[in-house]
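Subject: sequence -> structure tokens, single chain

Hey, anyone have a minute? Need the predicted structure for the following. Not urgent.
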Amino acid sequence: MSTTAERDRNLRIGELSRRTGVSSELLRAWERRYNLFEPARTPAGYRLYGDEDVRRAERMRFHLDSGLSAAEAAMVTGSDFSGVLQHEPPEASVPQQYGDELERALDRLDDRAAHAALDWLFSRFATETVLRDVVLPYMRGLGERWERGEDVIAAEHFASALLRGRLLGLARGWGAGGGPLALLACVPGDQHDIGLICFGLALRGHGWRISFLGPDTPLETIVRAGEVLSPSLVVIAACVAERAAEAAPALAELARATPVALGGPGTDVALAERIGARHLPEDPLSAAAHVFAV
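Reply:
Had a minute. Here:
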């Protein structure tokens, strides 16, 4: 009789490649040379992978990006997944104290401690779990503290730069694969793209490919990229309503040629309807699930 872990392995190697941004050939090499994965097999002999294998591949990529050799990265990845990690269900939540540890490090502008906290989190939990339970709540909390008049400007700049760099490291290769393509951009004048990066990482987890234009993107650049790439969906984010309203005429023209979705706290259903676009939930992870479900 198959174990629960075996039943949960239902990903062929092509899907594992799409979810992680690692080529099938390289995944096979990691499995062959370093025993990084232990896939189940179908009666016909095809390998089947699961959520833990997705996390293993993500950690292997992280350690390679950190400068380790492939053999060193495989050894550290194996260590990352010893003990508690291999028993952690995919839907597990991050305990509050670990999120608090990262918050304290970011608030005191402690680069070393913040990176160490993130290393620990990403080694033990799925990327989307860390985004849902730690990264996004912290960024929302900063905004709420600023609205209350607290002096968090330095922390906001420090945390945004550090988290953005780490998330874009996880996003490496997110344009590879064979799934539908989403083109992501912030409206002109909008510098806040961490939510959009989180959205892209979550959508990548649903098998989409991502082309990311980033913050403060000129409208003509978005239009031109849409013409070149012919994406399945263009997702435009705005944190400030005035910025979104200023971009509305150009976005309405874009929406006549390409499916467009609006997201972020600076957008609403009425604006999306006026443009001829879809409106996404404000939470980036819910927005990604919404796109995948449609």
